[in-house]
Specification:
Blueprint (H helix, E strand, L loop, with lengths): L4 H10 L4 E5 L3 H14 L3 E5 L1 H5 L3 H13 L5 E8 L2 H10 L3 E4 L6 H17 L6 E6 L29 H8 L3 E4 L16 H8 L6 E3 L7 H8 L3 E6 L1 H20 L4 H24 L1
Parallel strand pairs: 1-2, 1-8, 2-3, 3-4, 4-5, 5-6, 6-7, 7-8
Helix pairs in contact: 2-4, 2-11, 4-5, 9-11, 10-11
The structure holds 1,3-dihydroxyacetonephosphate.
Length: 288
């Protein structure tokens, strides 16, 4: 069944847990995530990256994921991730996304607020008041679709931690329903050990009641994700580790399946298994 993302996250937080969100570039991965969620009896979120959404078949993928969510045995939400282009957002919502991360984090503070407000107004004006908006405050280093670390040459803009002093003003003026934070988390691989700024996260958590979102979860130890969930982080985004697992299977198995009569079906089965195992682990970790 499809679920409103904010309701899914709030009910997880009430039980002291968080909901994992997984970037899906394809239907096989999404199917694997939904199967893992059904096996775990827990909700999950299917993320569509902005470049995927903007690709020629992006709207069809979103529509397919929405169909998958509608038919799932557990609550599933479909979210357009990190979008700053209002046209792309409206197209993704028309295709079936029921939530969007309106990402104005690279803009000056007031422009970030103005972007979120204008997307909200656009959505409401088109009868999409039920579309849930996540907004982002602070800059997240790293590449959304590729696993370069934060410091890899050319891969990342300068990152800035979320300024906790801006949180109350930002949340009330944007009307955002979830807040993505930058507390030392990065997209892609961490250079060395991740060092989350628990002091900053704690400070943010006492300043707003809306659920917080931790992007860049790949590489963060399980116990730290659990600790974050206790600080009002109700949604945790994974991409890099999921891709790594799938790519390892492809690398290892593709020649065997080629030799086995070009057996694409078996290869897709193993692709799905890798994604399902990863999602199952994340679901277990965050259920604690
Ligand atoms: P990672 O690729 O670091 O897991 O981050 C994923 C993410 O935050 C998607 O929004």
């Amino acid at each position: 069944m499809r679920a409103r993302l904010d309701h899914l996250v709030s009910s997880a937080l009430q039980q002291g847990s968080a909901v994992p969100a997984f970037t899906c570039y394809d239907f096989t991965t999404a199917l694997a995530v939904v199967s893992a969620a059904e096996e775990a009896g827990r909700g999950a979120i299917l993320l569509v990256a902005p470049k995927t959404a903007a690709s020629p078949n992006g709207p069809r993928l979103i529509a397919a994921l929405r169909g998958l969510a509608d038919g799932a045995g557990v609550p599933i939400a479909v979210q357009l991730d990190h979008a700053a282009d209002p046209e792309l957002i409206l197209a993704a919502v028309a295709a079936g996304a029921d939530s969007v991360l309106v990402d104005g984090s690279s803009l000056p503070y007031e422009d970030n607020i103005a972007l979120v407000r204008s997307v909200r107004a656009d959505l409401d004006g088109r009868g999409n008041a039920d579309v849930v908006i996540e907004a982002e405050l602070g800059g997240l280093a790293g590449d959304e679709d590729r696993a370069f670390g934060a410091d890899a040459a050319g891969s990342a803009p300068a990152a800035g931690l979320t300024d906790s002093g801006q949180v109350e003003d930002f949340v009330s003026r944007t009307g955002a329903q979830l807040l993505a934070v930058a507390v030392g988390n990065v997209h892609g691989k961490y250079q060395g050990e991740p060092r989350l700024r628990w002091d900053v996260l704690q400070d943010i958590a006492v300043r707003t009641r809306i659920p917080l979102v931790l992007h860049g979860a790949s590489g963060i130890p399980a116990e730290e994700l659990v600790k974050a969930a206790a600080m009002n982080v109700g949604k945790v985004n994974f991409n890099t580790e999921l891709r790594t697992g799938v790519l390892a299977v492809l690398e290892e198995r593709v020649s065997a399946h080629r030799a086995d009569g070009e057996n694409l079906q078996a290869l897709l089965g193993q692709w799905g298994d890798a994604a399902r195992n990863f999602a199952a682990d994340a679901l277990r970790t965050l259920a604690r």
